[in-house]
Amino acid sequence: MRLSSGAALPLVALLYALTGYAEPPPRQPAQPPADLPPGVSPALWKLVVPASAAPTPEKVALGQKLFNDKRLSVDDTVSCATCHDENFGFSDGKPVSEGVKGQKVTRNSPTVLNAMFNASQFWDGRASTLEDQAKLPILNPREMGMPDEAAVVAKVKAIPEYQAEFRKVFNRDVNYDDLAAAIGAFERTLYSGNARFDRFIQGDSKALTDSERRGWALFNGKGRCNTCHAGNAVNPLFSDQKFHNIGIAAHKQDFVKMAREALKIVRTGDEKQIDELALETDFSELGRFLVTKQENDIGAFKTPTLRNIGITGPYMHDGSLATLWDVMDHYNKGGVSNPYLDGGMQRLGLTEPEIDDLVAFLYTLTDERFTKLNQKFLTQQRARKNQRPERDTAVAMGKKGNLGDLAPNPDLNVKNPAELGVYGTELSVKPAPAKKP
After folding, report:
1. Cβ density class 2-37: b for 16+ within 10 Å, e for less
2. Distance of alpha carbon 415 from the chain centroid
3. Are 23 and 5 in contact (CB under 8 A)?
4. Which residues are catalytic?
5. Which residue from 102, 106, 333, 390 could staple onto 329, CB 3.0 to 4.6 Å apart?
6. Domain shared by 288 and 320, yes or no
7. 413-432, pLDDT tens digit by residue?
8. What gap in Å lies between CA 225 and CA 149, rounded to an integer?
9. How many domains does the chain have?
10. Residues 4 and 124 grouped into a single domain
11. Alpha carbon of 261 to those of 80, 258, 264, 337, 416: distances in Å?
12. For 303-357, how does the pLDDT look when each residue is reduced to its tens digit (9 = 90+)?
């Protein structure tokens, strides 16, 4: 990793590594807003927001209007907010999203909360910036359905209010790049880092219950969650920003045959075709492979953020897991075996009380502005706790199969990992009482 000359802070260097950037981009950062929540580092903000993309009030207002305007779709029925609804944590609550004429795509709609911090966008990372991400759904036939950029510009230009607003904000007529820049500016205001977990990690020992603290310890220990979902003050997403095959769709796809077929038809560098393959065909299940054409990326998808995970289900790239109990069952048995399964996937051996504690912890990652929604979804998921299609206790406990040894389970009476606060400092909290056998 190369650092710029002068007074380069170690924290900034760490931020570049954690967010997937190889080196500081040659630009001046924007100044972070004064109201950043505790879970969002000002240093990280400056890292990812160049001055040229600073979310000024005028640009944000225009972007928010465009984000919510169904007239950007071919039949005036779908907007960005259709699939990124604030009432669902800026996702849509559906297994896979629906666009114009009720057409379904093949992937689940990820939240745009904290998308500004992503090293790449979409489940397969096919877009590198918020602006690139904003452009593609408008043109995808199954999403917003506009035929091309020129048609979008012509439609927006024909709306008098937009003519005036684009001139006011950008000092020129409507164009597609500026439209995406405005939407990107609005999305840069959708940061989230004010969860109960953030209060806990900042030193509020009463912010988490005993069950939630046990879940945090399991998250960092026996559950192995922090292998891909590490979270701390300088990495607020709880994501390693990498791509992994965890076997979600392996049981219904022949990845090898599909990859060979895909290589014959994928045109290198054609972003529009990759977008259509990802959302309209069975090739969607190849994931990152569609972008890189590398065999080790077959079936690999980006590690999603765990921020607001309680309100952004159903889960995984295809929305196939309805509850966080289903998610834990999937990981507990080591995923679904396939030739490209990530090497980190192995059984966890979690007991039912441990799964309950982990789920309880995950619900502490929801921003407190969504507290009522978080409780509503927790109640709904808990009601489905006995419907467990992914559960395989025999495999998880090592009674059948051969999926590796278990991670160490920390003795919470000696040292609870949940008591490590910001940058590893100690919190003034008492050890959690040992659970009765």
Report:
1. eeeeeeeeeebbebbebbeeeebeeeebbebeeeee
2. 31
3. no
4. 143
5. 390
6. no
7. 655 555 554 434 444 444 44
8. 41
9. 3
10. yes
11. 32, 5, 5, 22, 50
12. 999 999 999 999 999 999 999 999 999 999 999 888 889 988 999 999 999 999 9
